[in-house]
# Entry
Amino acid sequence: MFKPYELVQIKYQHKNDDSSTTRVIIPTFVPSAAMKAIDVTRLSEEERLELQGLLRDYAAYFEAAVKRVFSFEDWISHTTGLSEDAIPEVKWRTFLLENTERID
# Structure
């Protein structure tokens, strides 16, 4: 099991070939087996469509709001006083859980 913000060493099996790599990562988002959803079973079709539209509007609003906040690199610079040039290069990557093995 992976936990957000915990250093972990992994072996990652690449999807397109038979190669694998070993990496040390800090997970930032770990999906679970269950999805979160709004249950609209008891609403009419019209109410469902209205709520769907409102949810889409909210998602667009939220995405725009997130773009206005600090990036992680900005946060490091702000909290440590390091210039952007002095911040170590890190790469944001996505790892498919089915191809990822935790190495302890």
Q: What stands out?
A: The chain has a mean pLDDT of 84. The chain has one domain: 8-30+42-103. Residues 81 and 92 are 22 Å apart (CA to CA).
